Amino acid sequence: MFNPLKQAGDLMKMRKQAMEIQKRLSEERIEVNENGVKIVISGDQKIVEFENNGASDNTVKEKFNRAIKLSQEIAAKKLQEMSGGLSGLLGSMGGI
User: Fold this and answer.
1) For residue range 31-68, what is the model confidence (pLDDT) as tens digits?
2) Hey, which bits of the chain come out as E strands?
3) pTM recorded for the entire structure
4) Of the N and C termini of the chain, which has fewer Cβ atoms inside 10 Å?
5) Measured CA angle at 23 (ends 18, 67), to 5 deg
6) Which of 92, 4, 75, 83 is nearest to 12 (CA)?
7) Listing from the earlier edge strand, what are the strands of the sheet with 55-56?
8) In terms of residue numbers, what domain contains 30?
9) Number of structural domains the chain divides into
10) Does 96 map to a domain?
C-alpha cells in the first residue's frame, strides 16, 4: 500500500542526513603546501586559506571560491537534467 506520509518522512530523514554530511565535510581541512604556495580547502570544497610565497591573497581566494561554486552549480544542473531532479521522486509520492 502506498503511504505518502512515510515517503515524505523518509525524504525528510534523507535531507537531514545530507545536511549532517555537509556540516561534517565543512569541518574537514585539506592542505597542500608546495613550492611556496599553500592552499587549505574544506571538505565541502571552499578555499579556507591561500598563500603565495608566504603572502596571503584574499582576492585570489575569493575568485577560487567563486569558480568552485559555479562549477558546483553546473554539476548540480547537469545531474538534475540527467535524473529529472526530485520531480520524479515527488511525482511517485502522489503529488505531495
Assistant:
1) 999 999 999 999 888 899 999 998 888 888 899 899 99
2) 29-34, 37-42, 47-52, 55-56
3) 0.60
4) N
5) 95
6) 4
7) 29-34, 37-42, 47-52, 55-56
8) 4-91
9) 1
10) no
